[in-house]
Design brief:
By secondary structure, this protein is mainly α. The chain has one domain. It is 67% helix and 9% strand. It has one helix and two strands; from the N terminus they run ββα. Strand 1 and strand 2 form a beta hairpin. The relative contact order is 0.14. The protein binds zinc ion. The site of zinc ion has 6 residues, from helix 1.
Amino acid sequence: MHQCYYCEQIFDSKEALYEHVEVHSDVERNKEIRDRKKNKQED
Ligand SMILES: [Zn+2]
């Protein structure tokens, strides 16, 4: 049993968990890019 440490969803295989975690890291990356753009506008 493998649990996502972001949303606590349960997966049968490590592979399924890894694929799922990509969703979270994409969200984090997009948020970073958006924050960076926002900061640039404020300068
Ligand atoms: Zn998750």
